[in-house]
Amino acid sequence: MTTRTIDLNADAGEGFGAYTIGADAEMLRSVTSLNVACGFHAGDPVVIRGTIRAAKAAGVAVGAHPGFPDLQGFGRRPMHIAPDDLVAILVYQIGAVAALAAAEGVRLRHVKAHGALYNMAVADDRLAGAIAEATAAFDGFCLFAPEGSAMAAAAASRGVRVASEAFLDRGYRADGTLTPRAEPGALVTDPARVAERAVMLARDGVVVASDGARVTLAPATLCIHSDTPGAGRLAAAARGALEAAGVRVAAP
After folding, report:
1. Half-sphere CA count of 141, side-chain side, radius 13 A
2. Which of 81, 71, 17 has its CA nearest to residue 42?
3. What is the phi/psi pair of residue 116, to 5°?
4. What domains are defined for the chain?
5. Angle, nearest 10°, between helix axes 45-58 and 83-103?
6. What is the pLDDT of residue 200?
7. Of the candidates 184, 174, 180, 182, which has an alpha carbon nearest to the alpha carbon of residue 211?
8. HEC states along 50-69?
């Protein structure tokens, strides 16, 4: 499948208090959507508001990036939370970012789960359902989720639009899942390789896995994490390569 229009997204607003995490300012020069941390795995009200303001000034679409309540582990540790409780936790986070966005004259466009929650919900129907239910509580939001995942199915069953997501800075296994961060090859930090991946995914719907297998995907949005080393250069390389290949880069 060939995609001629594609979104480039980044997770952002993941600092806390006096601590800055991620190359947010650099990313805003290249991406078209920003996923703003909601305060439970990272971020705080001041950081969230400042991130939304910066995105608005750059003309970048804004979405909420809720995760597990795990500041110490940056939301990357598995947690086991009852689905009904998780819905409340997610609605709380999305609602907080939506309120801060409204105060800046910005309407949120999408939701993307963070870290361990995202990874677990790829195959866990109960977690996926909680994420979809929380997203459906807000009118018109779409959900960023991997193609063929439990998240995508749960969203579709609730009438929530899905933007299929692929990752430019993460390694893939032959089955289409991400290489765990603790394993070799989990991160892709070479700008030339990221640029090549972006064009292959947008134009050909293919990403090459760590073992050389060709994985077929049909993404509507491509992600680069703002805390990946050299993230600003990676995003610029991806954006430049996509445009040079005749691919329009725009928010979904």
Report:
1. 27
2. 71
3. -65, -35
4. 5-249 (3.20.20.370)
5. 60
6. 96
7. 174
8. HHHHHHHHHCCEEEEECCCC
Nearest Cα neighbor of 116 from 70, 175, 153 is: 70
- Please, what is the Cα angle at 211 between 210 and 212, to 5 degrees? 95
* Predicted structure pTM score: 0.94
Return the SS3 of 159: coil
pLDDT at 212: 87
Tell me the C-alpha to C-alpha distance, in Å, between residue 20 and each of 31, 34, 43: 19, 16, 9
Of residues 33, 11, 227, the one with CA closest to residue 117 = 11
- pLDDT at 182 (0 to 100): 81
pLDDT, tens digit, 9 for 90 and up, residues 205-228: 999 998 888 999 999 999 999 999
In the Cβ-directed half-sphere of 160, how many Cα atoms lie within 13 Å? Answer: 31
Residue 93 confidence (pLDDT): 98
5: its two tokens: 């229009």
Please state, as a whole number, how many other Cβ atoms lie within 10 Å of the Cβ of residue 233.
16
Q: How far is it, in rounded angstroms, from Cα 159 to Cα 237?
A: 35
Element (H, E) at 175: none
pLDDT in tens, 57-92: 999 999 999 999 999 999 999 999 999 999 999 999
For residue 176, is pLDDT > 90? no
E strand segments, the chain: 5-12, 33-37, 61-65, 110-111, 142-145, 162-167, 206-208, 214-216, 221-223, 248-249
